[in-house]
Please model this.
Amino acid sequence: MSSNYSTSYNITQSGDLYALQDHGTATGLGQYNSTRGTTVNSPVNYRRLMAYKGLDNEFWFYIKNQDRKPIYIFNLTINAVLIDRSTSSRVLTKQCTITDADLGTCRLVLTEAEITNLDNGLYDLILTYTNEKGLVLPLYIDMNLRPNYTVEISGVAHQIPLMTQTSTNFMSDGNGYLIGDRWFGPGFYNKTNGLVTFAVYCTGYTGKFRMQGTVSEYPTESDWFDIELGVAVDWYMFSNFTGIEPFSFYSNLNYLRAKIEDTGTGTVDKVVIRL
Model:
């Protein structure tokens, strides 16, 4: 007997951070006295953080002292830097939002727009604060004094189709072709993988079908060009075809449209496109 039930989980993307203090009197860090010896009772719950393209990604951090007690972070600035491991370069710098100064909690949001053009893979996330002497100091994540969380940027959520667009209205261009409605393309949505799938619905149709695109934000007629739909050809030939013919290609185009040869033999009833 099969079951139609499934389970989902709400997993908090959060972690502990701690600051090393030789005295418990630092401005903004003096709610609790710190350990003055060599023993450090630092956080041990290290985990990899995930950031998904196509979504806003929210992370929570709990800043503590060496005794794992919350640090008072009022008037502190907590900055986050995202570093590409492959190039050792900074790709993003932004300030965290303090959500509870007494409990030492802060929030970091990596928005869809901020990571959409980054390559999938592993990045280092380093959080710092500035002390009363103006020194920019790291916040550590474990007992090995590592200052960096690992963040994996993934495009798996970006594979979800943004929308389905349908065209059933085709207007003559005066040159023997019918032109369909204008659709939004991958470039319009900053969809970096650029996958476009579409299907042509026909009834007894004979003629050449073309898909056109443009990178212009405000296209005129001269901005449109034909997209390759076969081996070294920018059209697909239908011959008395009834049914649904699928196509797919990759592009960074802002807009797309169908261009259909008006032969008078059969009809193209609609074209459905999905990004």
